Request: fold
Amino acid sequence: MSGTEKWIAFITIIVREVRRFLRIWPQTLLPPAITITLYFVIFGTLIGPRIGPMAGFNYIEFVAPGLIMLSVITNSYGNVVSSFYGAKFGKSVEELLVSPVPNYIILTGFVMGGVARGLGVGVIVTLLSLFFTRLNVEHIVVTCSVVFLTSVLFSLAGFINAVFARSFDDISIIPSFVLTPLTYLGGIFYSIDMLPGLWEGVSRANPILYMINAFRFGVLGVSDIDVGWAFLMIGLFIVGLYAYSMYLLVNSKGLRS
Amino acid sequence: MTESALTIRNLRKAYDNGFEALKGIDLDVEQGDFFALLGPNGAGKSTTIGILCSLVRKTGGQVKIFGLDIDSRFSEAKKYIGIVPQEFNFNQFEKIYDILVTQAGYFGIPRRLAEQRAEKYLRLLDLWDKRSTQAMMLSGGMKRRLLIARSLVHEPRLLILDEPTAGVDIELRRSMWHFLREINRQGTTIILTTHYLEEAESLCRNVAIIDRGRIVQNTSIKSLLKTLNREVFIFDTRDAIETLPDLGGLPGHLLDEHSFEVEIQKSDSLNGVFDRLSRQGVEIVSMRNKANRLEELFVSLVRANSDEPAAEENEEVA
Reply:
């Protein structure tokens, strides 16, 4: 394929992915909006004032970046895992596999579909958060790059989950039992400085902690960890997951026998 | 010399469980041909097609599409192929117009041209009125036509149809035959697998019969039919008969009180049979072949092959 043909194929995959999540917006865009509104009402407005300031900010201001990242992470992951597994289950993935589209375009197209939904939901949630608190972005480049790279990372993770999944149960196990606990324990609702020494150390092994704190640094200018270290970690994860995803796309028995 | 549309040499496929689905097949399909690939279930037809469209990895051998090796010039070779699979493998929730435009996009066709092609093939296959309908809402016959339209949207030079008329009613089957003949006439090479041997006999010029991973026959349909040296006819009588008339020693038997069947060698004349029946006062009102001729040949070839000791008896897992 020529460069132009590859570009057309790439855009085609993204358009199809965006069309898919827009077509089922009551399942993809509405739930995170409602969930995050409830988080803001409960943790921000009702409980937040009793907790008091954290890292020099009102509690609602402190949790807002984490809640935005929570939405971005779960939606990026959820979009790719459900779309790719659905295509595999319904065999429509064969439309792509029999076409001349190179594997890296297929993977990047699905990842960008996940990023589109992750960032789309991120924007919706950010707009909703403005009803409850002020968000003065301190470092716009850090904010945008962290949210984009995190979305890429979790889209790749969703792709790997989809390749391995053999049933619809398999695509909910990782989000329920790995992703959600790691996200909640990743410092959305608290600063790890508040934890006892052992648990602070354990928390530092959680990669999501770095993403949430880097994003919080971008928005509020405060972080529990070094932002450079966070970028390095996100970058390494992306490289590793991308390489593994490509390996699966070429070699997986679930796609080609 | 013109390149063959498809060249297969020593193609092998062994699955992880050890089952050898293809045991080194050779096949050539000339450009412009209408070619039938026949075989019983599990013979290796779908595995062969799977390898051509890269859904199955071959274990050994070489495949060329219009001279392009699928290992070294994979992307270019794929552009030449259109696949109509056995199963409905489109997104059932998508509108059928979007399915075609998207498929064209995967082949790098610009949006405007993709839309024109989608309209052209949806109209040709009588689906244009349903363009905004979700695929899941179509009838079985419409879904089959959608598969064909999708396979043509990038205008391939080689169209491979895997059981395209399975489960399709007779009227629709005939209209699909007409359509396929027309695109073949316009220059598209077609390879067809089918269980309806009448379909292969009616449409195809050349045929390969595959059984247990080996090609057991590869010739023209005409040459194949010439090898058939006997036919069974059914005669319907005007008046009821109680016993089988004297057929001059030809094998036959009574089917019911108004019909009987008789097996006739190609060297024998039907006139002799009619003379003999007339002399006995048996009036024939109609006659027909008992079975499809190609079907008889197919069964005899596969049966002959199954008499040979098989390397393994296993289930295909393609």
Observations:
- DSSP finds ten helices and 14 strands in chain B.
